Amino acid sequence: MKVRRCGLFGGTFDPPHFGHVAALRAAAATSRFDRIEVTVAGDPYLKSAAGAIRPAAVRLAMARAAFADLPLVVVSDREIVREGPSYTIDTVGELLEEADEVDLIVGADLAVQLDNWHDASTLRTLVRVGVVPRPGSVTVVPEGWSSYEIPMEPVDLSSSFIRDIDLSSDDLKKFLPELVIPLYLGARGYSRHNGSS
After folding, report:
1. 41 to each of 48, 49, 116, 146, 163, how far by Cα in Å?
2. pLDDT tens digits for range 65-79
3. What's the CATH architecture for 3-186?
């Protein structure tokens, strides 16, 4: 049986943090969605070009630890099992076989970049965009995209901030769900890279 409307919240999740959790809770509270799928990028082409990221299996485990108990949320490995770079348009195509409508859920810092996404001209005809506010980012969606804002208090937190500072397990409790911390600390040997998610 098809889902009526699905929200798609994709990312690298290296690591998933309380900002992601807040965004998913806010999206669920809008009553716009019957399901929200979190997709963990297998090969996030925009980020893998910038430097090393933790293995997909580690990032998937962290995402499941962070989000599995949130309302409406399902954490998916579809972009990990799919070969090649992780393109949102491919995921949307798969989801449209399972749902009547798919809305992208993105942060305001990413919304302005939508025209740079792979096959953006087709993608904007397939989805609406729910924009999550970010501190210091004005919500600007390029012309031609149907969009709306997801109401929430912006959270000043990014994965790159967490990766770039040396934190103890106790410090991490301010930024990461508790079940994520041992997974994250166990993978700290992997190289860091720049960029936020």
Report:
1. 10, 14, 17, 24, 18
2. 999 899 999 999 999
3. 3-Layer(aba) Sandwich (3.40)
